[in-house]
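S2.1 Query sequence (RNA polymerase-binding protein RbpA)
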Amino acid sequence: MASGGNAIRGTRVGAGPMGEQDHGHHADRISVSYWDALGNETVRHFAAGIAEEEIPETIDSPHSGLPAGRDKANPPALAKAEPYKTHLAYVKERRTEDEAETLLEDALQQLRERRGQD
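Output structure tokens follow.
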């Protein structure tokens, strides 16, 4: 019968005199809840001694990727997604020739006035 390793049978590798409390797993912490616009709650834990100013007001929600805030009644709003515009939609938004000439004339007039003042 061959056995490998030097661990004593029935013991956990890495176990020693230090318990979980010595590793910091039971340090005093506070829980802070964040809510996103879809109603998802995310709880983050911070050290109990941390100043209130150091706790962030908003985070990115891991559930939805949206911003999440500490105020449950007023979470950050959803970002407005602009719909895709086709080339034809941009062409329809273009100014007419008369409007373009009027804008150009106004811009040139303003430049002439500025040069006259210098």
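The beta strands are 29-36, 41-47, 58-60, 67-69. The longest strand covers residues 29-36.
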